[in-house]
């Protein structure tokens, strides 16, 4: 059994063990049994980046899959992998998303808790004409004004200069580094790092007005 | 792995940690949690790039969640105090949790 499956089973059985039972099935797949609810089959992935090819492989290997869990906290999901899983009725996210989905009985439609709210919010802004998800945290947004804006989301409680630099290093340049965590504030160094890299570091409250000004 | 074992492993595996302040925080200190939360405080540059590579290798089979800050950010956010961060060296030496003196 691979390390991430072992961690997932230990944590699930400790966190929710009174009501549920999580057990190993095969490869990196676990089964979670809940009283009065359908069983949940989840693939616990140790991949650093989850691509379309990878998730296609997971679903071919185990067609009854309900959820794909990227166990690493810094796991990156490609946009087309997310689209594929959603179209197949397979939930996706981190270990926290899986725990919540099991409690809520919605593993098949669950999406990564970290990015779920903000990714919905983008589509709800009236000034946004279209938004293409390139990665879990990167959107190419077309505004009604015709302007295109590449937005990268930073979920850290205290976004640091390193958070901003790492975002650009990993995903390429962005116009806006959006700190989606409602608590905390971007540090002065992170705002400075953003200026050096040609992007604005913004909280949710400032995002809409900034886009309206473009 | 216990918090002490993780701290020992990281300090042994990542020699560039010598150039930074390194801490553990969060639920792993109490032996639970999905992630192992680590804080690294120090300057941006080549040493940090090298440290990230070392941590990447050390974390191949561990759910590490690493936050990097420079010194001004550590002061600005008061993160070390607010999150009750414990130095990896203290953990490795078995100095945490502190023993009570009667």
Topology:
The complex is a heterodimer of chains A (214) and B (102).
Chain A: H1 3-16, E1 20-26, E2 29-34, E3 37-45, E4 49-50, H2 52-61, E5 67-70, E6 76-77, H3 79-87, E7 91-93, H4 95-104, H5 113-124, E8 128-135, E9 138-143, E10 148-154, H6 161-171, E11 176-179, H7 188-196, E12 200-203, H8 204-212
Parallel strand pairs in A: 3-5, 4-6, 5-7, 10-11, 11-12
Antiparallel strand pairs in A: 1-2, 2-3, 8-9, 9-10
Chain B: H1 3-13, E1 21-25, E2 36-41, H2 46-58, E3 64-69, H3 71-77, H4 79-82, E4 86-87, H5 88-92
Parallel strand pairs in B: 2-3
Antiparallel strand pairs in B: 1-2, 1-4
Summary, kept brief:
Chain A has 214 residues and is of the alpha/beta class. Chain A is built from eight helices and twelve strands.
Q: Could you describe the 3D structure shown?
A:
The complex is a heterodimer of chains A (214) and B (102). With 214 residues, chain A is α/β, with parallel strands linked by helices. Chain A folds into two domains: 3-111, Dna-directed Rna Polymerases I, Ii, And Iii 27 Kd Polypeptide, Chain: A, domain 1, CATH 3.40.1340; 115-212, no CATH class. Chain A is 39% helix and 29% strand. Chain A is built from eight helices and twelve strands. Chain A starts with a helix and ends with a helix. The mean pLDDT of chain A is 93. With 102 residues, chain B is of the alpha+beta class. Chain B has a single domain, classed as Beta Polymerase, domain 2 (2-Layer Sandwich), CATH 3.30.460.10. The model of chain B has no long low-confidence stretch (mean pLDDT 91). The interface between A and B is medium-sized, with 25 and 20 residues.
């Amino acid at each position: 059994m691979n390390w991430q499956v072992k961690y997932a089973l230990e944590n699930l059985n400790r966190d929710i063990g009174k009501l549920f039972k999580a057990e190993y099935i095969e490869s990196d797949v676990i089964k979670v049994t809940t009283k009065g609810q359908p069983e949940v089959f989840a693939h616990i992935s140790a991949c650093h980046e989850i691509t379309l090819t990878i998730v296609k492989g997971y679903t071919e290997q185990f067609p009854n899959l309900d959820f794909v869990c990227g166990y690493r906290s810094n796991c990156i999901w490609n946009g087309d992998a997310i689209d594929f899983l959603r179209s197949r009725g397979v939930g996706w996210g981190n270990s926290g998303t899986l725990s919540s989905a099991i409690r809520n009985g919605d593993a098949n439609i669950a999406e990564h808790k970290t990015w779920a709210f903000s990714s919905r919010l983008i589509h709800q802004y009236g000034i946004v004409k279209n938004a293409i998800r390139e990665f879990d945290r990167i959107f190419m947004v077309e505004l009604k004004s015709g302007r295109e804006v590449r937005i990268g989301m930073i979920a850290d409680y205290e976004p640091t200069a390193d958070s901003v630099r790492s975002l650009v290093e990993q995903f390429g340049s962005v116009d806006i580094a959006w700190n989606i965590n409602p608590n905390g504030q971007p540090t002065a160094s992170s705002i400075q790092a953003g200026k050096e890299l040609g992007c604005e570091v913004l909280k949710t409250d400032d995002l809409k007005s900034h886009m309206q000004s473009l | 792995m216990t918090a002490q074992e993780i701290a020992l492993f990281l300090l042994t595996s990542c020699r560039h940690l010598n150039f930074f302040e390194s801490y553990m925080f969060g639920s792993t200190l109490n032996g639970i949690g999905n992630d192992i939360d680590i804080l690294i405080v120090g300057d941006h540059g080549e040493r940090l790039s090298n440290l990230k590579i070392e941590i990447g290798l050390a974390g191949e089979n561990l759910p590490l969640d690493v936050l990097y800050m420079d010194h001004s950010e550590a002061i600005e956010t008061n993160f070390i105090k607010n999150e009750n961060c414990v130095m990896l060296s203290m953990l490795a030496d078995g100095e945490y949790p502190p023993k009570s003196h009667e």
